[in-house]
Amino acid sequence: MVQQLQTEAAEYSTAERTLLLRLAHESIRAVLAGRQFSIPAPSEHLAQKRGAFTTLHLGGHLRGCIGQVLAANPLYATVIETAASAAMEDPRFMPVTPEEAPLLRIEISVLSPMAPIRAEEVVIGKHGLMITHLGRRGLLLPQVPLEWGWDREQFLRELCHKAGLPGASWKHGAQLEAFTAEVFGESSPGESLES
Q1: Are residues 106 and 142 in the same domain?
Q2: Contact partners, residue 142, CB within 8 Å, separation at least 6
Q3: Nearest by Cα to 174 from 159, 188, 187
Q4: Is the N or C terminus of the chain more exposed, i.e. has fewer CB atoms within 10 Å?
């Protein structure tokens, strides 16, 4: 069963979430087979321009995560592109193998627009953050501090480290922007392909 990981009201229906997760799997299969994958817009709603991240898990561990922060493309196309990139281009991991592909559990985070925020306004579990400072930029999704048990200050320090900045940079003139995300994913590998 496709699960929603945030408690706020869902913008996307169960059918839309399942379709996006299925498109992510199909995109990974296509890139592994060396072919292009694209489809016409499945609906007007999924054709709206939105930023999104596709996260791959294998055996309970992160296997790749790539996203687009800016709402430059239709959501369904963003998911297709970020899934293939997470599988093949995440610099932290070797490319996903054909043997691993059926074992992947996929999670998608659809982003709201960015808005400036002060550090004391950050709510753990609600806000994802992007920091910009001294020509560097880093981003962490809203679910990350929950997964690691971080408080607000630890979240801000880790955000700085993600950007390659000293941990206290958020206190010294860095620009903080927040976003929310509708996060949903599979509870078992390839679950969305069975629907």
Answers
A1: no
A2: 6, 109, 125, 126, 127, 128, 179, 180, 181, 183
A3: 159
A4: N
Q: What is the DSSP string of 52-90?
A: EEEEEEETTEEEEEEEE-S--SBHHHHHHHHHHHHHHT-
Does residue 186 share a domain with residue 132? no
Determine the Cα–Cα distance for residues 65 and 52; give it in Å rounded to an integer: 11
Tokens of residue 10, six digits: 């869902």
Same structural domain for residues 49 and 103? yes
Give me the residues paired with residue 175 across strands: 132
Q: What is the pLDDT of residues 83-104, one digit of tens each?
A: 999 999 999 999 999 999 999 9
How many domains are there within the chain?
A: 2
- Contacts of residue 29, defined as CB under 8 A and 6 or more positions apart, other chains included, come to 37, 101
> Residue 142 in contact with residue 127, Cβ under 8 Å?
yes
d(CA 66, CA 45): 22
3-state class (DSSP) for residue 40: coil
Q: What is the mean pLDDT of residues 132-151?
A: 93
Residues 107 and 46 in one domain: yes
115-116 and 128-133: which strand pairing?
unpaired
